[in-house]
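Its record is quoted verbatim for completeness.
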Amino acid sequence: MKIQVNIYQLLIILLFSNIIFAQNSDDLLVKSNKNFLNKKDLNSVITSNSNNFSSYNSVFIRQIGNDNDIVSNSQATNKSINTLQFGDENKIDLKIKARKIDETVIQIGLSNSFLDLNPNGNYSHKTSAIQTGKNQNLILAGNNSISEKMLVNMKGKGQTILIRNSSMK
């Protein structure tokens, strides 16, 4: 009888110790997000992400805020897609077909939208975009040698940029 009581006490202690550990892991996530957003230069984030391009497919999504949407319909042999949304009601829509995709999109603010359309299957598609502010709209249609490795940095509010490349049919 005493052994059963000791077993129950041990099970209760183990159960509560797991709950305490799980609460600490959230603190690590918050600290990680703060460290990521405290970078002085967002261009260094893009540079570090593009240097990590590898031979496998990966889509990295980090969202902090409410009502953020990311849709990634991408076809590639090798792809590295990195997205960060910090704020509310930001939208990213990627419809890309290429052999290699290297895409980084950062949205900081409210109601920003980014649409990247490249359905033609180019050899390489490399784009980086930073939207900081409110109601920023960026639409990229197609891909060619002029827009290859393009970095678009939008700051402010209520701006729209449409970039149409000749490869779009």
User: Anything to note?
Assistant: The chain is about 25% helix and 50% strand. The CA atoms of residues 42 and 99 lie 27 Å apart. The chain has two domains: 1-38, 41-164.
